[in-house]
Amino acid sequence: MKLAERYTHLTDKVLKELNRGLAKKRRSRDSHGCCKLIGELNRVYTRRSRILREILRLLPFFLAAVIVKHHSRILKIEELNVDPTGTKGALAKAIYNMPDNAFIYEKAVWLASSELGYNVLLEQVNPFNTSQLHNVCGGALDRKLGHYDYAYCKACGLKVNTHFNAALNISLKQGRPLSSRSFPPLNAREGNHSNDG
After folding, report:
1. pLDDT value of residue 189
2. What pLDDT is recorded for position 143?
3. Domain end position, chosen among 44, 64, 84
4. Which of 102, 152, 161, 194 has the fewest CB atoms within 10 Å of its CB?
5. Residue 68 in contact with residue 115, Cβ under 8 Å?
6. Could you give the number of structural domains in the chain?
7. What phi and psi values does residue 121 have, to the nearest 5 degrees?
8. What pLDDT, in 10s, does the model give residues 115-139?
9. In this structure, are 89 and 183 located in the same domain?
10. Are 168 and 149 in contact (CB under 8 A)?
């Protein structure tokens, strides 16, 4: 979570301030100041890229911990082959920022299954309307530009956390099982433990 906060801080604050400063230097034709700011921007982009790589490395462990904490039996995810072409605003941003392969989720399910002692299922659901409809009343959410984290329901007027709302919609949809081929089966692992004793 600290890495995610750092990533957000660099994106929402540091990069915006540096880009504003660079625009100002360009307007005043300060080439020395421009070079310094471009160098700083490159360093921040590199730092942000490293943080993102580390987040993606740790994400399966984080997801597994959540699954174990709640003793979940199924992890449902939206289909990973969604084409963001033609989408706008918040939805496009969400799609482009999603991890791009099932490995993260497969590893999380395998780690959680190892801890819980039963196979946690991984299922894909069709993403149609998961981010558009209010989970409580079924009304359409007002997804205007900039309404990424929160949006108002056009039907009941409630302010809705779009991520939590989408997660609830995903949890209620019929899923299609995904088989995990990247990791050894749990019973093979348990067999190894019994031979150790």
Report:
1. 46
2. 78
3. 64
4. 194
5. yes
6. 2
7. -85, 145
8. 999 999 999 998 888 888 999 999 9
9. yes
10. no
